[in-house]
Specification:
The complex is a heterodimer. By secondary structure, chain A is an all-alpha fold. Chain A has 8 helices and no strands. Chain A has helices spanning 2-28, 37-60, 68-89, 95-112, 128-161, 175-207, 216-237, 242-266. In chain A, helix 7 runs antiparallel to helix 8 (242-266). Chain A is globular, with a radius of gyration of 19 Å. Helix content of chain B is 56%, strand content 13%. A 6-stranded parallel sheet of chain B has the order 7-6-5-8-9-10. In chain B, strands 2-3-1-4 form a 4-stranded antiparallel sheet, with helices on both faces. In chain B, strand 6, helix 9 (216-225) and strand 7 (229-232) form a beta-alpha-beta unit. Classes of the chains: A mainly alpha, B alpha/beta. The interface between A and B is medium-sized, with 24 and 29 residues.
Chain lengths: 276, 427
């Protein structure tokens, strides 16, 4: 059964790689574009990826996000889906070129780590666990997408300020559109992350009898949450936008990445990806 | 049978000569008839614009065709031949095809890639075909030209970037704001370039235009023209925060807008981005303004750089377009060659035989007890009918061809739909 799963996942990786290649081509080529293959490849890749994930969930009889392999893969899937969703609201033609490398890296990394199904300790079995995981991952996926868009913003802003009106400037989206869609990602991602943390806390009280135990993952989630809360507040009430907002979003990105991976790989705690 | 093109354009002739040789659209129907008669052309078309006057035609022999065309121009416009003969170019066959394709694709234009020429060419063709002065060859020549022009536009970036300072400003604004629908524009001063840029912005659908000028009446006049609002010059600074785009071109000797008031305006509009275009020389806006976040200031040199860059790109794209055109010229020549008698006869035979065989096979399928000998006889009958049916048309083609007349071949091709593309269109 794992062969089907791995085949689907590898297929997704192949399509993500194709999207990366076509994405770079869109970005650097000087001719106008008729069809955006990059986005289509991501759509196809994410579809295969979703199938792989469902197959895995079916095998494991639970939401299959229990170890590093599954987490990396699931995150890539959600990032791809977030990209497709945001693209429906505000189309950003060359965003795919910036997102696809992340999809490739995460999926490749997932394939390179042990992918045996980890048995779940009975203590963790609860309706709240999948909810907590789903919400937190989805929130982070939107926030990471927002960060990538912010990187594009800073790049385009730099080009316009320095009057470099050529090359990839022509293929990057308008500044305002980038800023709007980064803000949209924040508005989607932040509530999801908040609910993710709350549901985790509820679950913790069932599993361990306490809402919050200050383990490193929790502490860092809180730091990330505070950063994005500050950013959202600034955007809503103090007219933060553009460069300032983009820099903060990118700092937020670093915090997410550390919470997501750094904590597990460097520190230990309740949230470790099944250590075996 | 030859395609010829004779004419003059902005590169070969001064405007004084071009205007003397130009044709008015309303006189064209009559002129085309005269042209065909006097220059002995079987088909003719005239393209007359402010940058070029060109005669396209089909003639049976090139001998003295050039002279007849020149004489026609001289007679019609009553000008001495010596006054314009040096300004003319004359192309025949593949060169003429190549020239026509280049003109339609705007590769021969003053501003390479400008779109008007294609429309003008289409109008010229519409007049000529309404007068039935074009036939099989020029019709196809024109259709191919328009097709190639479209290819060049879609496959190259030849026409996609602004080549005027005022339009470059609009394109930059789009790169900052995305779409310009809800934008407000302020004009400071009333220079010509400013006005032009304002018009471009209005065409892009900006919501409102504010105009200010040291002379309020002038501001009012412009504001009326754009259905905008005029502001007295001494209070315009109080309105800076309400606008997204500022176009400035006053004759002021010093800066009239500095970083302090822009910082204030930005704060008031909660950092929503602003695009400032300073077309004045000496400049109106302190360049330090560009150091503020969310403000993008371009002066006239910056815009000129953008235009230069875009023109370079157009020239690069033109090379790519030239390749496209050359390829198409080859294709067109192949088609022309197929018009001559030998391939026409061959294709005609094949087509009739093919139809015969198709029907034969259908019939044979209905028989179950036919001996091989009977089958042979039926086949022989189909062949005999095909050959006898084609005997006279083919003889006719051959005789006419020996007399130097290729028109029957084109007629036969049309009647029997021997050209692939015509088949596609009609099927």
């Amino acid at each position: 059964m794992t062969t089907i799963y791995l085949a689907l996942l590898s297929g997704a990786l192949g399509l993500y790689t194709l999207s990366m290649v076509t994405g770079f081509f869109h970005l650097f080529q000087p001719r106008p574009q008729k069809t955006l293959w990059c986005k289509r490849f991501i759509l196809a890749g994410a579809s295969l990826h979703l199938l792989a994930f469902l197959e895995r969930c079916f095998q494991a009889q639970t939401l299959a996000v229990t170890n590093l392999h599954e987490s990396l893969s699931f995150f890539a899937l959600l990032l791809g889906l977030a990209f497709l969703l945001i693209g429906r609201k505000i189309p950003l033609p060359t965003l795919g070129a910036f997102i696809s490398p992340l999809l490739v890296v995460f999926t490749l990394w997932a394939l390179a780590t042990t992918h045996t199904i980890s048995p779940q300790p009975p203590i963790l079995r609860s309706f709240w666990l999948p909810l907590h995981v789903l919400l937190s991952f989805a929130g982070n996926a939107f926030l990471v997408l927002g960060c990538i868009i912010s990187v594009m913003y800073l790049l385009q802003e730099h080009l316009i300020k320095k009057k470099q009106i050529k090359g990839i400037f022509r293929n990057l989206p308008a500044l305002q559109k980038l800023d709007e869609s980064s803000y949209l990602c924040l508005r989607c991602g932040f509530p999801l992350l908040t609910l993710g943390i709350i549901s985790g806390s509820v679950w913790a009280s069932f599993a361990w009898g306490s809402h919050w135990s200050w383990d490193p993952k929790e502490t860092w989630s809180l730091i990330t949450w505070l950063l994005f809360a500050a950013l959202l507040h600034g955007r809503m009430n103090s007219g933060w936008r553009g460069r300032k907002a983009s820099f903060l979003t990118i700092i937020g990105f670093a915090a997410i990445m550390f919470t997501f991976l750094g904590v597990n790989l460097m520190l230990s705690g309740l949230h470790s990806y099944a250590a075996h | 049978m030859h395609i010829v093109a004779l004419g003059l354009n902005h590169q070969t002739a001064p405007v004084a000569t071009r205007e003397r040789l130009a044709f008015k659209a309303e006189e064209l129907p009559e002129v085309l008839q005269r042209l065909k008669d006097e220059a002995q052309l079987s088909e003719a078309l005239i393209l007359s614009t402010c940058n070029r006057v060109e005669l396209y035609g089909i003639c049976n022999s090139l001998e003295s065709c050039h002279e007849r065309l020149i004489k026609f121009l001289a007679d019609f416009h009553q000008i001495e031949i010596a006054d314009f003969a040096d300004n003319l170019y004359f192309h025949t066959d593949s060169d003429a095809i190549h020239h026509g394709f280049r003109v339609a694709s705007s590769l021969d234009s003053m501003v390479v890639g400008e779109p008007q020429i294609l429309g003008q060419f289409k109008d010229a063709f519409a007049i000529a075909s309404a007068e039935a002065s074009t036939g099989l060859i020029l019709n196809r020549f024109m259709h191919r030209s328009f097709f190639i022009a479209k290819e060049v536009r879609t496959q190259t970036k030849i026409a996609s970037n602004a080549v005027s300072v005022s339009f470059a400003a609009v394109e930059l604004a789009k790169k900052i704001f995305g779409d310009l629908n809800d934008m407000k524009v302020m004009l400071i001063g009333a220079g010509e370039m400013c006005e032009l840029a304002a018009r471009h912005f209005i065409n892009q659908g900006v919501e409102q235009v504010l105009v200010t000028n040291r002379t309020l009446s002038r501001a009012q006049q412009l504001a009326d023209e754009f259905s905008g609002i005029a502001l007295p010059f001494d209070i315009f600074r109080g309105h800076l925060d309400q606008v997204d785009i500022i176009l400035s071109s006053t004759g002021a000797p010093d800066f009239i807008i500095g970083p302090d008031e822009m910082a204030k305006a930005l704060k008031k509009r909660r950092n929503r981005p602003m695009f400032l275009i300073d077309i004045a020389v000496p400049r109106d806006i302190d360049p330090k303004v560009n150091e503020l976040d969310n403000i993008y200031l371009f002066d006239v040199d910056d815009l000129q750089d953008v235009v230069t860059e875009n023109l370079d790109q157009r020239r690069n794209e033109a090379k790519h377009a030239e390749e496209l055109v050359s390829r198409e010229v080859e294709k067109f020549e192949q088609w022309l060659a197929s018009l001559s008698v030998t391939p026409t006869i061959k294709q005609l035979r094949e087509q009739v035989l093919q139809i015969g065989n198709q029907e034969l096979n259908k019939t044979l399928a209905g028989f179950s007890d036919l001996s091989p000998k009977d089958e042979q006889r039926l086949k022989a009958m189909v062949n005999a009918i095909s050959n006898k049916f084609l005997h006279h048309p083919i003889n006719y083609l051959k005789v006419k061809n020996d007399n130097g007349d290729t028109m029957p071949a084109t007629t036969i091709r049309e009647i029997f739909k021997l050209d692939e593309e015509d088949k596609k269109i009609n099927s």
